[in-house]
Amino acid sequence: MKRDETRGTTGMAGRPKRGVPEGLWLRCPQCKATIFRKEAEARCNVCPECDYHFYLPARDRLRHLLDQDSFEEWFTDLRPRDALGFQDRLPYADRLRAEQSKTGMADAAVVGKGYIRGRPVVLGITDFGFMAGSMGSVVGEKLTRAAEEATRRQLPLIFVSGSGGGARMQEGILSLMQMAKVSGALKRYDEAGGLYVSVLTNPTMGGVAASWALQGDVTLAEPGAMIGFAGRRTIRETVRLELPEGFQTSEFLLEHGFVDRIVPRKDLRTEVARIIDYCEH
Ligand SMILES: [Zn+2]
User: What are phi and psi of 155, to 5 degrees?
Assistant: First the structure.
């Protein structure tokens, strides 16, 4: 699978657009079928022809994963800041405002408490739709506090990664340090005997894959997700070797021991509930 195809459609300038494109019809990047959007939506954004897993926004994922109306969102007052006065093609502050109005989210993570088939859990989700789900200070802080609350309340912790962006470069070192911060909270959670289930979705890359996303006690992945650290081209240019076909997919990582189980989206709620029961009894 080519990198662009895992990200939805390709824009006019050849730059991949994020999320699922607008319109009544969708073209599936995997089987190339033209599918009725409503039909895919009824299946949690999974292709009815070939089971390709499209992007699913955090809000929809909450609904899909948790028992109805059971989610209590935490730390909603955390807002990103442009501490470095950073500017690339756009000033970071402008970019943040645009992403906020596009997604209705303050930043790329949602955390809180909810129930999965009657079992209380602490849940954190990163959303690819907000700056590619990249981890800046707010994402790192929310996930850290979620892990700390899970420790304090002795609850299972579920993080679902949709972070193609890795660490957020617009926040420089402030984003890189989130990798260590979240990892530290997870270590303390682990020492307190907590169960951490990490769910990898398409895509999970960079500093997110290199920290919390691959530190689960149990690591699940959706089918066909792109999971890795650096992109294929970067690695090839660095190590100057031909890379195996599909080496950054859920299936390849399952075969090589980085992923414990591939779980289709429709089975995720049941599977997580089962793992909680298995580990707690
Ligand atoms: Zn398809």
Answer: -115, 150
Q: How far apart are the first and last CA of the chain?
A: 40
Query: Are the beta carbons of 224 and 202 closer than 8 angstroms?
Result: yes
d(CA 18, CA 4) in angstroms, rounded, equals 10
pLDDT tens digit sequence for 183-225: 999 999 999 999 999 999 999 999 999 999 999 999 999 999 9
Rounded to an integer, what distance in angstroms lies between the CA atom of residue 67 and that of residue 122? Answer: 13
Alpha carbon of 45 to ligand 1 centroid (Å): 11
Give 153-163 pLDDT, tens digit per residue. 999 999 999 99
Taking the C-alpha atoms of residue 227 and residue 186, their distance in angstroms, rounded to an integer, is: 20
Q: How far is the CA of 47 from the centre of ligand 1 (A)?
A: 5
CA distance 91 to 235: 29
CA 229 to centroid of ligand 1, rounded, Å: 26
User: CA 69, CA 67: separation in Å to the nearest integer?
Assistant: 6
Q: How many CA atoms lie within 13 A of 172 on its CB side?
A: 10
**pTM score, whole prediction:** 0.91
208 alpha carbon – ligand 1 mean position (Å): 27
Return the closest-CA partner of residue 201 out of 214, 217, 186, 220: 220
Q: What is the Cα–Cα distance from 28 to 35, expressed in whole angstroms?
A: 7
